[in-house]
Amino acid sequence: MTRVARLGPDLGDIIRRRRELAELPIRQFASMVGISGPYLSQIERGLRAPSDRVLHAIADSLRTTADVLRREAAPDGEAPLAVLAAIAADPRLTARQRQALTEVYLAFVRSCEGGKPESDRPGG
User: Fold this and answer.
1) Best CA proximity match to 106, nearest among 75, 68, 70, 62
2) Do you know which Pfam families this protein is assigned to (predicted)?
């Protein structure tokens, strides 16, 4: 199977990055979600799309929501993905620190979905 060209990260990329941020091996995470390791691998590589039930189970296991995962996978999610990758790659951080930084960063990004923070908007 081949991947379709895309503009930004896909849902599988987001799931994989979040799993790696939580320092969960693929088999352990698949078990937590209630699916097989090969199926999770296919989801992460963009070869299969998870059902709504599976996506919700993945989100629950990652302590987030399916809507947040979908939003991160939107085509304009490239900048957030770069920041998430930097957080995940920093060896000075513990798993808990990575998770906290990720949650705070994503909360800030969601709070300024119009593109600019409130203080940079006219009248803000």
Assistant:
1) 68
2) HTH_3
Q: Is position 59 within any domain?
A: yes
Backbone angles phi, psi at 35, to 5 degrees: -130, 170
Closest CA to 33 of 94, 41, 47: 41
SS3 breakdown of the chain: % helix, strand, coil, rounded to 5?
Answer: 65, 0, 35
Q: What is the CATH number of the domain that holds 94?
A: 1.10.260.40
Q: Shortest CA distance to 1 belongs to which of 34, 57, 53, 43?
A: 43
Q: Rg of the chain over CA atoms, in angstroms? A: 15
**Running DSSP on this structure, what letter comes out for residue 7?**
S
Q: pLDDT, tens digit, for every residue of 39-91?
A: 999 999 988 889 999 999 999 999 888 888 887 776 555 566 678 778 877 88
What is this structure's pTM?
Answer: 0.60
